[in-house]
Write a structure and sequence with these properties.
Blueprint lengths: L1 E3 L4 E8 L2 E6 L6 E13 L2 E7 L5 E7 L4 E7 L5 E9 L11 H17 L6 H5 E8 L7 H9 L6 E10 L2 E9 L6 E10 L2 E11 L17 H6 L4
Parallel strand pairs: 9-13
Antiparallel strand pairs: 1-2, 1-8, 2-3, 3-4, 4-5, 5-6, 6-7, 7-8, 10-11, 11-12, 12-13
């Protein structure tokens, strides 16, 4: 990776989960060293990475791979303290490519839906949704403020049950059931687009739940266990 900070550019090579090589090729700080690192995942493709250099300097990086931004906190051997923000570009991919966005984004969506429509926590809107959130629903205006107002005014009878989820790239679809003041629950498919760890766009399709009867046969439109079965490993 190349990380460009205001004072210099540094080249980072992650050798393993516990070792990193950095190289500053120009200027008074020019040097190359391989250091032992500790990596702590913080969620949504954000990691805390720390190490100590042979000259006594210590480094703490908050590395955001979704946005390509590194926040660095460096204490030099002299005691001088730096705070720097750098832009990261991957110059050589890992030998083993892994895209964990679908699983991370599914976790983000289900956490947001539970916070808003089970706990009815209007304060969670700011945490999960982008400021310019786009809502494709004629009954709900776009934007975070409108969604906060909607959640703040929800009846205690509202309860959402998450079900089967599908994710690809930046999109997540979740199948669920919404119980409201109405006597008939609604089956809902919500589709979200995720950018920079936030929900930025939403579409939904709703249908009244039709119960299974002996005359009609068939299977239920929604099963609370469908998400549990989805996450179980196959034999």
């Amino acid at each position: 990776m190349e990380v460009t900070y205001p004072p210099f550019k540094v080249y980072l090579t992650i050798q393993s989960a516990t070792e990193l090589t950095f190289a500053i090729k120009e200027g008074k700080f020019a040097r190359t060293e391989t250091v032992a690192i500790q990596v702590v995942p913080l969620g949504n493709s954000v990691f805390a990475v720390s190490w100590k250099e042979s000259n006594g300097a210590t480094v703490m990086n908050i590395q955001d791979y979704d946005r390509g931004v590194f926040l660095s906190f460096v204490t030099l051997a002299s005691g001088e303290f730096w705070r720097m923000t750098g832009l990261m570009v991957a110059t050589r991919p890992a030998k083993k490519v892994s895209d964990d966005r679908p699983e991370r984004y599914k976790a983000l969506v289900v956490e947001a839906m539970i916070a808003l429509f089970q706990r009815r926590d209007a304060s969670a809107v700011e945490r999960f949704y982008a400021p310019d959130y786009v809502q494709h629903n004629p009954h709900v205006p776009p934007g975070r403020d409108a969604l906060q107002t909607l959640v703040a005014n929800l009846s205690s009878d509202v309860f959402y049950e998450p079900g089967l989820m599908v994710a690809e790239g930046n999109f997540v679809a979740i199948h669920g059931r919404m119980r409201t003041l109405a006597s008939t629950p609604q089956i809902v498919v919500d589709l979200f687009r995720v950018e920079d760890g936030k929900l930025v766009e939403h579409w939904d399709v709703l249908q009244d739940e039709v119960p299974v009867t002996a005359a009609l046969g068939g299977t239920p439109m929604f099963d609370p266990e469908e998400r549990v079965r989805q996450t179980k490993p196959r034999a």
